[in-house]
Automatic annotation (TrEMBL):
Part of the tripartite ATP-independent periplasmic (TRAP) transport system. The keyword Transferase does not apply. It comes from Roseinatronobacter thiooxidans. Belongs to the TRAP transporter small permease family. This is TRAP transporter small permease protein. It comes from the Bacteria.
């Protein structure tokens, strides 16, 4: 059980680091978008690569921080069933949700997109816009990053659930315990 706790902590640490790094892309997105608007309306000029850049940064940011969102419990869930549940029931719901929905979703994303991304790398794919951003293959690669980070965080969620079901709530770090517990067991 202690080894599982360490694995969960390692996955959480990794997704926190990725989330804290990639969330700064939101600042870059705003700055690039602002520069595009100023350049277009003030200087009557446009650079297509910059117009490609901010939606691409947006895509990279949101796919990279998906595991962090799961870690922080910022994902969509049916709160009418989950919020009033006891800690033990939340653990069971999370375990079932990870096994029935999250892991199959991550597998489908990975398996269907792998050849898509591989082809993009092989072609050295760039923007369809003339004068647009090169390296569309980098952006498409983040689809696979999405599958990996959510699958890993799903493993951490499953471990948390197993620890709680096994009565080892003490092995769950404080920052990963359920918030607003209605009861401890």
């Amino acid at each position: 059980m202690i080894a599982l706790s360490y694995l969960m902590r390692l996955i959480n640490l990794m997704n926190r680091a990725i989330g804290n790094l990639f969330m700064w892309l939101s600042v870059a997105i705003v700055l690039v978008c602002f520069a595009v608007v100023v350049e277009r309306y003030l200087f009557l000029n446009t650079r297509l690569w910059m117009q490609d850049l901010y939606p691409w940064l947006n895509g990279v940011m949101f796919t990279a921080v998906a595991g962090y969102a799961l870690y922080r419990n910022d994902h969509v869930r049916v709160d009418i069933f989950y919020r009033p549940a006891s800690t033990l029931r939340k653990a069971w719901l999370d375990l079932l949700g990870v096994c029935i929905f999250l892991m199959p979703f991550a597998w489908v994303v990975w398996s269907y997109c792998f050849t898509f991304v591989q082809r993009s790398w092989r072609l050295g794919e760039a923007s369809a816009n003339i004068g647009g951003m090169p390296g569309l293959w980098v952006l498409k690669s983040f689809i696979l990053v999405l599958a990996v980070v959510i699958a890993l965080q799903g493993v951490a969620m499953a471990i948390r659930s197993i620890l709680i079901i096994a009565g080892r709530y003490d092995l769950v770090p404080d920052d990963y315990k359920y918030k607003y517990d209605t009861e401890t067991a």
